[in-house]
Design goal:
The complex is a heterodimer of chains A (257) and B (317). Chain A has 257 residues and is mostly helical. Chain A has one domain. Helix content of chain A is 78%, strand content 2%. Chain A has eleven helices and two strands. Chain A has a two-stranded antiparallel ribbon with strand order 1-2. In chain A, β1 and β2 form a beta hairpin. Chain B has 317 residues and is an alpha/beta fold. Chain B is 32% helix and 28% strand. Chain B has a six-stranded mixed sheet with strand order 6-7-8-3-9-10, sandwiched between helices. In chain B, strands 2-1-4-5 form a four-stranded antiparallel sheet. Chain B has a four-stranded antiparallel sheet with strand order 12-13-11-14, with helices on one face. Classes of the chains: A mainly alpha (257), B alpha/beta (317). The interface between A and B is medium-sized, with 32 and 35 residues.
Chain lengths: 257, 317
């Protein structure tokens, strides 16, 4: 593999992705900012005051890490699935397929684009959160590594979704019927210690629970689950989803005739 | 930078086969050899297998069997080098319509590992050459059909490929732009780029290409130099515009003549006669000719005969 060629190619894909995000900022940046502001006002401020504290933190503080992670997850996924499917649908994916850039570079470029948008939105939501509550970062390395790994996982998932998608409906099915329910049930708004044992067990099968809690641990220093488990799950998902993406690209499934 | 020996084939295709999932056998084992520096026409009716063959060469379609080499590099075992030689202008417009003209070409250079600094210089060079420089900041969606086609050519040239494949590049382009595109393609061919062209405009193939292959139902039915192929066309029908009106067609030995109008004569020429004979007889009859043209494009006539199955190896076309 020509490393220099592929480095330039990856940089090009990232630049293209960031241009796209910034060109359509009203669709990519503004909606999550508005949605999260509403979450903070309604759930954090109005309802949260009646709930009181959770795990020793006021409710607004408790949900802030979960809301930041939720916006990172949905935006990382959404960026890659819409961008890659758009390229496939209109045919300009062929620009990359006919070029000598490797399949690994195509995947890395798009995933990096998803991660950058996820981070951009995550930082924006964090700034919004600071208008409503005080956040002191307990474990910065854990916070940054968990949010990066989670963003990579969902960017890769978005990539796989885009590879299989044949029409625009197909790129909204997973976010609507899988991603959103798992996020809401992933401990963003509550601690699973409040649930009966049976539902706690069910909740522990949800990978987003580990991401949200590990991120919350990074910021607040409190978590419902083991951080080691969370890292293990994140790394396993990154390796698994990257391998699947690479396999699909090599076989040309959904891309080459 | 890989040096290309002069004697090398730009493209070698051996026993290339493609069967789609629906059972359609698009290519039934074709062989092609395109010499470096050639201007090569790949012709065939719709659905003959041209675009499938190009798709396989450019890695957009998975082949079912056979081998493809670009400048001696296999697209299977040495695909990175093989692909770096290739530029493709596809049949369908496949631009990112929301991106600017300049960005589209710069990004394409990036996919070939070309630094942004060099890419910007080349973008200017090729957008100017294809009369798109003034539109560099406009989104591709705002371009006309002909401009989009020219943008696809600029995009395919930005990494300065040694082999350029153009799949119907002038479809829907007006005659003025088409002719300027022909001139430009001839220029880059003369500068050393091997060009493979598919087109439905056979006069385009005849005037540009030195070699021709005709593909029909997944098989190559003709593969020879353009001059050799055209020589096989034994019968030609000529239209002569006359200086003076005629009441009836003259009797010409070895030619069939009939009047199309008072001042237009249609003459059919057989294989054993030449144009000099015709003019000698016309002069003898006091008929003055103002201009002359073929009734149909010669390649078009030959093409129709070949794909209609009227081809006879003895050259009795």
């Amino acid at each position: 593999m020509n490393i220099q060629l592929n480095l330039v190619a990856v940089r090009t894909v990232i630049r293209k992705e960031m241009n796209r995000v910034l060109r359509i900022w009203i669709q990519t940046i503004v909606p999550p900012a508005i949605t999260m502001t509403l979450y903070f006002i309604i759930f954090g401020n109005l309802i949260g005051r009646r709930i009181g504290s959770m795990d020793g933190f006021d409710y607004m503080q408790y949900i802030a890490p979960g809301l930041i992670m939720m916006s990172v997850i949905t935006n990382s996924y959404g960026n890659v699935v819409s961008s890659f499917f758009g390229a496939k649908f209109t045919g300009y994916i062929e620009e990359m397929l006919v070029s000598p850039m490797s399949n690994v570079s195509i995947i890395i470029g798009h995933v990096a684009g998803g991660v950058l948008r996820g981070m951009l939105v995550g930082i924006l939501v964090t700034i919004i959160a600071l208008f409503f509550t005080r956040l002191e970062i307990a474990h910065p390395f854990i916070m940054i590594s968990v949010v990066l790994l989670s963003s990579i996982v969902f960017s890769l998932a978005g990539f796989i979704n885009a590879v299989f998608a044949k029409k625009f409906d197909d790129i909204s099915i997973v976010p609507t019927f899988v991603l959103t329910p798992l996020t809401y049930l992933g401990g963003v708004f509550y601690s699973i210690s409040m649930l009966p044992d049976f539902w706690q067990g069910i909740s522990k099968a949800n990978p987003i629970l580990y991401m949200v809690n590990a991120f919350r641990y990074g910021i607040l220093g409190t978590s419902d689950i083991s951080i080691t488990y969370a890292y293990t799950i994140l790394v396993v998902f990154v390796v698994l989803l990257f391998s699947v993406s690479l396999f699909l690209m090599k076989k040309g499934i959904g891309i080459r005739e | 930078m890989v040096t290309i020996p002069n004697f090398m084939n730009a493209l070698t295709i051996k026993n290339l086969k493609k069967t789609y999932d629906n059972g359609n056998q698009a290519l039934k084992g074709i062989d092609l050899n395109v010499e470096a520096g050639d201007f090569y026409a790949l012709l065939g009716p719709n659905g003959a297998g041209k675009t499938t063959a190009i798709g396989i060469v450019s890695s957009l379609v998975n082949k079912s069997g056979g081998q493809v080499e670009i400048f001696g590099h296999s697209i299977d075992s040495d695909h990175e080098v093989a692909k770096s030689f290739l530029g493709l202008v596809p049949q369908e417009i496949n631009l990112n319509l929301w991106d600017t003209v300049g960005n589209i070409v710069i990004n394409h250079a990036g996919y070939y590992g070309i630094s942004e600094k060099v890419a910007r210089q080349r973008v200017e060079k090729y957008l100017r050459a294809l009369h798109l420089w003034d539109r560099r900041d406009d989104i591709a969606l705002s371009l006309s059909g002909g401009m989009k086609r020219r943008l696809m050519i600029a995009r395919a040239l930005v990494h300065e490929p040694s082999l350029l494949i153009l799949d119907e590049p002038t479809a829907g382009v007006d005659i003025e732009i088409r002719r300027s595109m022909w001139n430009y393609l001839q220029e880059i061919n003369e500068a050393g780029t091997t060009i493979i062209l598919t087109t439905h405009y056979l006069e385009e193939a005849e005037s540009l290409c030195r070699h021709i292959a005709i593909i029909d139902e997944g098989k190559i039915i003709e593969d020879a130099k353009m001059s050799t192929v055209l020589r096989k066309l034994q019968r030609e029908v000529l239209i002569l515009s006359l200086a003076d009106d005629l009441k009836q067609a003259p009797s010409l030995v070895g030619f069939k003549a009939k009047l199309r109008s008072d001042c237009q004569l249609e003459v059919e020429k057989g294989p054993d006669r030449n144009i000099n004979d015709l003019f000698e007889q016309l002069n003898a009859n006091g008929i003055r000719v103002v201009s002359m043209r073929n009734k149909a494009n010669r390649l078009e006539e030959l093409f129709l005969r070949l794909v209609d199955g009227k081809y006879e190896p003895a050259g009795n076309i």
